[in-house]
Amino acid sequence: MTPAARMAAAIGVLDRVLGGLPAEQALLRWSRASRFAGSGDRAAVRDLVYDALRRRNSLAARGGSLSGRGLMIGHLRDAGLDTGAVFTGQGHAPLPLTEDELGAGHDGEVPDLPDWLLPHWRDALGERADQVARAMGQRAPVWLRVNPLRGSVTDAIDLLAAEGIEIRQDARLATALCVTSGERRVAQSRPYRDGLVELQDLSPQLACAQLPLAAGDRVLDFCAGGGGKTLAVAGRQAGLRLFAHDADPGRMRDLPLRAERAGVDVEPMQHPQGHFDLVIADVPCSGSGTWRRSPDAKWRLTPEALAALIATQAGILGRTAGLVSPGGHLAYMTCSVLDEENDLQIDAFLARHAAFSRVARYLWTPIEAGDGFFLSLLRRAA
Ligand SMILES: C[S@@+](CC[C@H](N)C(=O)[O-])C[C@H]1O[C@@H](n2cnc3c(N)ncnc32)[C@H](O)[C@@H]1O
C-alpha cells in the first residue's frame, strides 16, 4: 500500500472508532476486509490510528473537524507536511481537500482529554497537569524487566543485542531496560522466550521495588490477572511463598505458563483465606496512567464507569484488609493518576480501618518514569 492508501485506510478505521466501535475491533475489521495489506501496512495503519487517538482533540482542531479526515489532515499539518501531496484522490488516496476543509482548522493548544475529566486531572496533578497530558499524547517506550532467576542483567543486555535489540538501563533500577531499537523483535527473541526478560513498564517495576519482602513471606497477589506483579516480586526476593487470586480466574490463564518460563512457583487461590505478610491489590482502574498505550480508553471512560471502578476498588480494599497479618502490609496499586482512585480512596479506607497506617505513597508519571502509576503502602498494626 502507498502511504496515501494507508492514510485512507486509517480514515475509515477512525470514522468507525468515532462512531463508537472500539479501536481494536475497528482495526481487526479493516484488516480482515483487506487481505492485500501486509504486516507493514497493518502496523502503519495501526500507528496512524493510535497516534491520532492519543491527540484526538488537538489534531481535530488542526484538521478542522472531529472525523477520520479531520484527524488525518490535522496529523499532516502538525507534522508540517503538505496535505495536497497525500489527499490527491489518485489510486487509493483520500479525495482532495474541499474548500471548507482548506479553510478550517487552527493550531492553538487544546487539551487532549475529555472535557468532563479535565477538573479531575488538574486536581490530581496540579501544576504538572498540562505536561503530563502532553506526555500522554506521545507513544510509550517498551520497557523490559530482567528476571534474575534466569540470568544476569549483563546476560540479558548481550543476548538482546545479539538479536538487534538495543536498550538503555534505568539509573534507578538496574533490572529495568528501555528498548531503544528493535521493539518489534522482542516477543520473538530468545531472552524473552526463555524468561530472562519480561515486558513490564518502568513505573510498576519501580513500585514493586518498594515492597517490603523477606524470605519465607506469604505474599498474595489479590488482583493477579496475568501475574505481572507476582513475577516481579518473585524476581526481587528468593524464598517467597506466592499466591495468586483474581475475581475472574480466566484472567490468570496465562500465569502458569509465564511462571514456568520465569522459574517461579505460584499457587492459585480461588477463595483466599488466612493471613499474608504482604497483600498486593493491583486494582481495576480507569487506566488513566496508561493512556499512551490505550488512547481509545481515554475517550471511552465515562463518569459513571469511573464511579463504578471507585466502588469496586473500595470493595477490594475492604476485602483485602482482613487478609493482612498483624504487622503485615497492604500494597494498593493503580495505573491511574486520578485522586479519586488513589489518595482519596486510601484516605477513605484509613478512616474506616484504624488498624492500618500509611507507610509510603508514590505517584509516578511519564515525566520522571514510565506510565502513570500509584502505590500506597499500608501497614497493619502488630
Ligand atoms: C489491573 S488488573 C491486574 C493486573 C495484574 N496485576 C498484572 O500485573 O498483570 C486488575 C485485575 O483485577 C481483577 N478484579 C476485578 N475485580 C476484582 C475483585 N473484586 N477481586 C479481585 N480481583 C478483581 C480483574 O479481573 C483484573 O484481572
CATH topology of the largest domain: Rossmann fold
What is the distance, rounded to the nearest whole angstrom, between the alpha carbons of the first and last residues?
Answer: 65 Å
CATH hierarchy, class of the largest domain: Alpha Beta
Low-confidence stretches: none
Bound ligands: S-adenosylmethionine
Report Rg.
Answer: 23 Å
Structural class computed from helices and strand pairing: alpha/beta
CATH architecture of the largest domain: 3-Layer(aba) Sandwich
Mean pLDDT: 97
**Tally of domains:** 3
Family: Belongs to the class I-like SAM-binding methyltransferase superfamily. RsmB/NOP family.
Binding site for S-adenosyl-L-methionine: 246, 282
GO molecular function: methyltransferase activity
Protein name: RsmB/NOP family class I SAM-dependent RNA methyltransferase
Short note summarizing the structure:
Helices cover 41% and strands 18% of the residues.
Explain what the structure shows.
The strands form two sheets. This protein has a seven-stranded mixed sheet, with helices on both faces. Strands 2-3-1-4 form a four-stranded antiparallel sheet, with helices on both faces. The protein has 17 helices and eleven strands. With 382 residues, the chain is of the alpha/beta class. The radius of gyration is 23 Å and the shape is globular. The structure holds S-adenosylmethionine. S-adenosylmethionine (SAM) binds next to helix 13 and helix 16.
